[in-house]
User: Fold these one by one.
Assistant:
Number 1:
Amino acid sequence: MPTTPATVWTATAALRRVTAAVARLDRPGPHGRASEVATLRAAAGRFVAHPRPPVLMAAVASLATVRLARGRFGRADAAVAVSILAAQPFVEWSVHLGVLHARPTSRAGQACYRIAGWGHEQHHRDPTNMDTMFVRPQEVLGTGTVALATALLGSPPAATAALCAGLGLLTYDWTHFLIHSGYRPRSRMYRGVWRNHRLHHFRNERYWLGVTSNIGDLLLGTNPPRDAVPISPTAAYAHTR
């Protein structure tokens, strides 16, 4: 069917409506600071009260519903789940360094900076501001649509993969928020990721790139002793907040 001015106008109007609907899911702040909460219960309450995390939770719930409807879990599903769990530290590491901290010195770097780097830079400038730390609804709906299509049209293990990826992103969002909250670590594992992420912010943002795990940093050489790297200008600025 040939493209006509009326078709273009209709498509543009539909895109504007979708954009407006997504914007309503991301109500402007201020929504407070993560540092204001000091217990797990209070942190959970603030997490679900912010307009961004519930969008991600709804997407994960949708993926879980679809996967349950696809039938029983088998060995292939277990293999997929273990593979995604093993890949999570390296995915976090790669995205954190290559996208969130992309340097706009090339076309690819400029694109990454416009998509996510600029927003992550604002998070580094004000780390406990709850309006700069969560995955945005636009990102959730974009990737969630692809994941949902995979879960619906692919094989049951593909649906499991989509669900596990969503759970991994939700775990990332929650852990990241909790690290910046006033809750202090009790378990040895959480104490390790808490310490490293704070070094990432307040020492040097080119190191300590893991959030839910330090495995990527340990294996990829970005987990140096604290005093082995200089304090970067961005980290020094954040430390004064």
Note: The mean pLDDT is 87.
Number 2:
Amino acid sequence: MLLASEGLHCPLLLLFLLFFLLLHPVHLEEAEEVPVEVIIDSSPCSSTCGLGLKTQTLCLLRDSKTAMEEAPGRKDGTEVSEVCRVHKVKCQESWQCGLRTVTVTSGQRVEVDCLGEVMEAMGTFSWRVSWRYARGIITSDDSLFARWEAPELDRVILDPVREEDAGTYRCDVQDAGFRRVKRVYWGVRVLPAGILNLDQ
């Protein structure tokens, strides 16, 4: 057993030497030539709660090597080039979105969307979405909710909505690391058919 463990030291030593050679100063100098981008413009987050998107404009620095060597606060040599690109990034100000209410008449279509534009931009499988439902009441008391199986991941569609569908629908969203990024409650009031809905 001792000989077998000693035999492992040679390959490990060779791997270490190979890694050291890869970090030779010649390679480090080449790494300094990598282009550096700076954000020159950024829009506000599209959502005040939960997941949102913002648009950023990034431009290349003319001399990224000089810019990285300069002391903080100095502006010399950090000119931005005309080579720019625009992209969208996720943003979040708060995960708690509170309670929203909607009043509809029986027979109408009701759609409660949990992710909206973020789902379209970032993809369905970037998030874990779970739904809960408190039948017949408008509330944010979490002890009153039971699991609700939504046929679609990102939204609840009631078409046609019935009086017994009234209640509060809660949506929770987690990112790939199981971190909560959004919770929102939708209180749905359903009036009998023929009753005038004053909310519309």
Note: The chain is about 20% helix and 40% strand.
Number 3:
Amino acid sequence: MASWRPLGGLGGFLDAVGGGGWGPVVTSSLIGAGARPRFVVGTVNAAEFLVTCAVVAAFLTTFLTGLWSEGSGLLDHIMPIAGLVLGGLPAAVVAGYLVKKAPRRPITVGVGLLVIGLSSYDLLNSAGAFGI
């Protein structure tokens, strides 16, 4: 278990710097290394929550002290924030159920394919392949 600490530390750093997305990578890596899926999902979600709390505290401190002069107001962004919260709640329930019922290998393959698919879409979209 001690050999997984660098993965968690790097994942947390990338989450704070890059705005997220490391959860599926860390989760699939730990499950692929043989950890129990329920333990991994719970641990990764708890770590993401703590990292998010730290990032929000830094954001609010910067915003409320006036250090971020371009901020137009927190209420201007309430709909995207609400969408993330409302979408994340049912996703957490479904993920917990799937991890409880599904075998380890299909979960690992599914998460890997999801990460590859989403990353490929983002890469192609940033290259202008979709004309968006």
Note: The mean pLDDT is 76.
Number 4:
Amino acid sequence: MPEAIINGLQHYWEDHGEGEPLIMFHGASQSSVSLAHHALALSKTHRVIVPDMRAMGRSAHVSEMPPSAWIDDAKALLDHLGLQRVHAFGISLGARVALRLAIDHPALVKTLTLELPIIAMEGATNTALNVNLGSFGNLPEADQKMREDQHGTDWRNVLANYMSIRNKPELQDHYSLRETSKGVRVPTLILRGDEREVVHPLGHCFELHQNIPGSWLWIRPNTNGSSLNAAPEEGYALMRALMANGQ
């Protein structure tokens, strides 16, 4: 799969299918591996590009970076691929990246799909993430294998680096999008299950729905976590309808 030096660092991405381009951003301390099944399914109708974001996966395992790095890398990757407009999907951290990409580069993004979005890092959410992500020292063997599949044999360093990066106040300020999201004008789908949990506040979906005129909101009932994982065909149909609407 493709690799290139982008913004002075090694970057890896998956690239599947043909048609209108869709870029997909993975979640915190994850990699393109976590979205592989969705990418392959959506590649039946779209060209799907899934980067390993800086510091994770098979991209450069850096220990620090400027707050705008993930956005700068996404823009540079799309320039490298010669793509002037794309659909964008993100889950959790990836939803923050996709949303910020649309805010910073509105002409680049045709549509947005935001799953389990976090629009600002609040106290309880930040504490829960630090507890969940910081517990990698005692992971079960199966979880260790999953992390190695995503990041390689130095996965512990990747997670430690990510914890350091995410706890920089300037990075969290950069991804505090409660106000700036009000300027988004592209067709947008916001989705999650109806589970109430601290890491991805349910209320953030409703806030984004209010902030983005004409956005679609799908809260799937009786669903924990990702509605796309729980009901992929339902989710793909909504995404494809949104992307057709954003031509």
Note: The two ends are 28 Å apart (CA to CA).
